[in-house]
């Protein structure tokens, strides 16, 4: 049965998250009636606008440098803990807001490889987001390692059978995405992590397309390391800082490659020799981007308030509606749905293919 405009209105009226629409800045009167790329850049929350004004006028404008000791220094870890609790299934002290996704991934991969010094291979997915592949290739070239590529199905993602074929005693690290950016396929994080661990390898998960829209249980799944951006489903803003997760058991031996003032144990002692900070703070390098940080704090607060379970339920309902409409309107025109039909295997976006060029219809 085809979904009508009246059906969509009825779904809006029954939506338990409907009031959250008022919490976001609406576009100007430019003819836009729907935004279908939230999986690329989330809408700005109104609270972020108010917070930025307060930051400039008060924290920065009045407090000036005193604001570092009045809360700015603690923001990366504070927001990280809140994010871990609200959306990542991570206990406090393991998640921190840091640099861009690429820089965070570089730090995690190099640190993970260093924890397996006698191993020579990195496994990753050929259809991973390009940045992930570039970082893997760069590290492999720098250290003389071999990259083993999994050729996952573009309409799906990496399976346990595919990973098992590539794993060996030479595998140092497995780098995979939880939700595939091309297809929205949800990888079996617990099973793939356990499989890598059976072969003595560590795993780095990319959560860019799942953080804030798909429930994640990093601690329960035994994940070693994870990275993700905040400007998609966490609505933090364009170019906002990413986050990284370092499992508590690895923090004593974890050594990231970009030593910086903010990652030191005693930054205000101005010591010549570097001593890493205890806990996940050692993953920091340079001064946190406070202006972007407040966007991250407000975005994470919205997710925490709405509840990741409710967000997931709405994502399933929206993507189910999109696939139904696509079947009726677009498939007869020669397009193809390139995402899993089973909502249990699909994240919060739907990919349509026209010949070979993908474009996303997001929920």
Order of helices and strands: HHHEHEHEHEHEHEEHHEEE
**Biggest sheet layout:** 7 strands, mixed
Helix content: 25-40%
**Apparent shape:** flat
Q: What is the CATH superfamily classification of the largest domain?
A: Type I PLP-dependent aspartate aminotransferase-like (Major domain)
Specify the CATH architecture of the largest domain. 3-Layer(aba) Sandwich
Describe the structure.
The protein is of the alpha/beta class and 363 residues long. The protein has 2 domains: 95 residues, Alpha-Beta Complex (Aspartate Aminotransferase, domain 1), CATH 3.90.1150.10; 240 residues, Aspartate Aminotransferase, domain 2, CATH 3.40.640.10. Helix content is 35%, strand content 13%. α4 packs parallel to α5. The C terminus is likely disordered.
Helix and strand arrangement:
Elements (H helix, E strand, L loop, with lengths): L4 H10 L31 H15 L14 H14 L6 E3 L3 H14 L6 E5 L4 H14 L2 E5 L9 H7 L4 E7 L11 H10 L3 E5 L11 H4 L3 E4 L14 E4 L43 H17 L1 H22 L6 E2 L11 E6 L2 E6 L1
């Amino acid at each position: 049965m085809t979904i009508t405009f009246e059906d969509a209105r009825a779904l809006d009226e029954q939506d338990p998250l409907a009031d959250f629409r008022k919490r976001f800045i609406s576009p100007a009167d430019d003819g836009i009636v729907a935004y279908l790329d939230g999986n690329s850049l989330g809408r700005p929350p109104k609270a972020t606008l108010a917070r930025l004004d307060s930051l400039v006028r008060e924290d920065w404008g009045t407090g000036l440098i005193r604001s570092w000791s009045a809360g700015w220094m603690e923001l990366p870890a504070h927001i990280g803990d809140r994010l871990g609790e609200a959306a990542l299934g991570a206990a406090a002290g393991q998640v921190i807001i840091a640099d861009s996704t690429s820089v965070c991934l570089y730090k995690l991969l190099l640190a993970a490889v260093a924890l397996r010094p006698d191993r020579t291979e990195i496994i990753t997915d050929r259809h991973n987001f390009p940045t992930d592949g570039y970082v893997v290739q760069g590290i492999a070239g720098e250290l003389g390692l071999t990259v083993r590529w999994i050729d996952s199905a573009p309409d799906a993602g990496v399976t346990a059978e595919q990973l098992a074929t590539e794993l060996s005693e030479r595998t140092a690290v497995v780098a995979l995405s939880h939700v595939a950016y091309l297809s929205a396929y949800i990888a079996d994080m617990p099973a793939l992590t356990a499989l890598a661990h059976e072969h003595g390898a560590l795993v780095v998960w990319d959560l860019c397309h799942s953080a804030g829209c798909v429930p994640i249980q990093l601690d329960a799944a035994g994940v070693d390391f994870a990275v993700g951006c905040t400007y998609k489903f966490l609505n933090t803003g364009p170019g906002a800082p990413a986050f990284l997760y370092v499992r508590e058991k690895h923090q004593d031996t974890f050594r990231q490659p970009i030593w910086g003032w903010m990652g030191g144990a005693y930054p205000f002692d101005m010591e010549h020799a570097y001593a890493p900070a205890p806990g996940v703070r050692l993953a920091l390098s340079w001064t946190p981007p406070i202006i972007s940080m407040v966007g991250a704090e407000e975005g994470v607060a919205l997710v925490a308030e709405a509840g990741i379970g409710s967000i997931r339920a709405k994502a399933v309902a929206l993507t189910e509606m999109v696939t139904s409409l696509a079947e009726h309107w677009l498939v007869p025109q020669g397009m193809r749905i390139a995402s899993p039909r089973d909502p249990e295997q699909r994240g919060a976006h739907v990919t349509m293919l026209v010949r070979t060029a993908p474009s996303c219809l997001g929920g």
